[in-house]
């Protein structure tokens, strides 16, 4: 077929190269570390540097997000830390979002600090906040939109323009939206990063990360940080991710449709004080999201109208929702960042006490609503 352009066709066929692989409808897994060159010059040497299975995956991901290139890593954090390390040098300054994934803040506050990199955290990343905290040595704007736990939506076009005006790189973690629902490079960003462990993998059986950006920058990232740190994704994980991408569009449609119903149910429930989900028209970020996103995934948070002890009991009484820290898989999962005893950290990230985060999986939406309803209705302080 011609070079596919629509997302579902990219996921199904781009890069699979049936003529090269004897007509195999599923490209073979190159589960090997070494490529010898005695018989033929083919451009491969060692899987830590490049591998045909990994390259198929990277071609699909780059096309999905309208990026010149993609590089996959062993985990989402490997992708993030490699990107930030490639952009920052001693004496540089970073503007970062407070409500971004907490391990990134920990990395900036510890590993980057050791090398003389300074960081300033912004709560809303408004242009006013940026101007107030911008420094002559600011080299990176780092953010998420929607952000972790409270799903704050930021004006990405404006932020990217301001970053470029001062010579900084604009970097975003785009995991929540997936390449289907938001394309940050089209909005002016230099780098878009995903934890492939989440929706891209979708089956809770893969660890991985991906960085999307310019071809020259990502070639350097591959040859330096990824290769030198040994942070390359293994071929089997790449092969599993290729499998997962084939159903990405249909999975995300189900996640999104079910999440819309669950969010509406929670918003109307008498035992729920607030729901954080940009897909709701009542959400403070909804209007902005409609200008830069084409859909909404299945991750949201809500604050029950009870004390922490009652909320803890409510979470434990859920039957279908499993409890765990990850999300984006086929299974529905609940996590409780708002029950963290570290009140200073909650305040820093803007997380209300009692906040419960849920990942809406692929179960029937009625089943999930019934499970939440029974747990909330039985909740008592």
Automatic annotation (TrEMBL):
Modified-residue entries (N6-(pyridoxal phosphate)lysine), positions: 198
Residue ranges the record marks as coiled coil: none
Q: What class of enzyme is it?
A: lyase
Which CDD domains did the record assign? Answer: CGS_like
Q: Name one Pfam family in it.
A: Cys_Met_Meta_PP
One molecular function GO term is: homocysteine desulfhydrase activity
* Transferase keyword on record: yes
Q: Which family does it belong to?
A: Belongs to the trans-sulfuration enzymes family.
- Which protein is depicted? homocysteine desulfhydrase
Question: What is the protein's species of origin?
Answer: Ruthenibacterium lactatiformans
């Amino acid at each position: 077929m011609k070079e596919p352009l629509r997302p579902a066709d990219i996921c199904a066929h781009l890069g699979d190269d049936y003529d090269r692989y004897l007509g195999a409808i599923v490209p073979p897994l190159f589960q090997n570390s070494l490529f010898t060159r005695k018989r033929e010059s083919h451009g491969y040497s060692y899987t830590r540097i490049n591998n045909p299975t990994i390259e198929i995956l990277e071609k699909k991901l780059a096309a999905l997000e309208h990026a010149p290139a993609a590089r996959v890593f062993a985990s989402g954090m490997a992708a993030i830390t490699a990107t930030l390390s490639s952009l920052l040098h001693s004496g540089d300054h970073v503007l970062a979002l407070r409500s971004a994934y907490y391990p990134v803040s920990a990395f900036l506050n510890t590993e980057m600090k050791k090398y003389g990199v300074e960081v300033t955290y912004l709560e809303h990343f408004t242009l006013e906040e940026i101007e107030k905290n911008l420094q002559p040595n600011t080299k990176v704007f780092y953010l998420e939109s929607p952000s972790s736990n409270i799903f704050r939506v930021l004006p990405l076009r404006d932020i990217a323009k301001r970053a470029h005006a001062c010579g900084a790189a604009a970097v975003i973690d785009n995991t929540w939206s997936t390449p289907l629902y938001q394309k940050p490079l089209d909005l002016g960003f230099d780098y878009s990063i995903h934890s492939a462990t989440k929706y891209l993998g979708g089956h809770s059986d893969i660890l991985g990360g991906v960085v999307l950006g310019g071809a020259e920058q990502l070639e350097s990232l591959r040859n330096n940080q990824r290769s030198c740190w040994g942070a390359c994704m293994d071929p089997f994980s790449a092969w599993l991710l290729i499998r997962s991408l084939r159903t990405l569009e249909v999975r995300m449609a189900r996640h999104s449709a079910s999440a819309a119903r669950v969010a509406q149910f929670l918003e109307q429930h008498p035992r729920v004080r607030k729901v954080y989900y940009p897909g709701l028209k009542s959400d403070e970020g909804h209007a902005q999201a409609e200008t830069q996103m084409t859909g909404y995934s299945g991750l949201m948070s809500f604050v029950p109208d009870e004390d922490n002890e009652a909320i803890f009991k409510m979470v434990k009484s859920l039957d279908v929702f499993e409890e765990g820290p990850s999300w984006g898989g086929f299974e529905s999962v609940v996590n409780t960042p708002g029950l963290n005893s570290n009140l200073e950290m909650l305040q820093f990230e803007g997380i209300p006490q009692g906040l419960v985060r849920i990942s809406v999986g692929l179960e029937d939406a009625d089943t999930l609503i019934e499970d939440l309803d029974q747990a909330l209705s039985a909740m008592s302080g």
